[in-house]
Amino acid sequence: MMVNEKMVTVRFFGKLADLHGAQLLLDAKGKTIQQLLMELNVEDVYMLAVNGTLVSSNATLEDGDELAIMPPVGGG
User: Nearest 5°: phi and psi at 40?
Assistant: First the structure.
């Protein structure tokens, strides 16, 4: 699969994938992850990773980044 260097790939997992789809390509260069989450109406995020590295929601995205968004794990 060819990666678009001018876009950010956003991958959703678990219930977030059910709500938003498994993957999006967005023009999000220069935005923080928090800004992007607000634009996409994504709440209840457990973990965030950019290019395989765990990050906080104040990390800034760059062209070619891959953002993974994982929801809290349910259980009991």
Answer: -90, 0
Question: For 16-51, how does the pLDDT look when each residue is reduced to its tens digit (9 = 90+)?
Answer: 999 999 999 999 999 999 999 999 999 888 999 999
Q: Name all domains of the chain by residue range, CATH numbers in brackets.
A: 8-68 (3.10.20.30)
pTM for this one? 0.88
Q: Which residues contact 23 (CB under 8 A, 6 or more apart)?
A: 9, 10, 11, 12
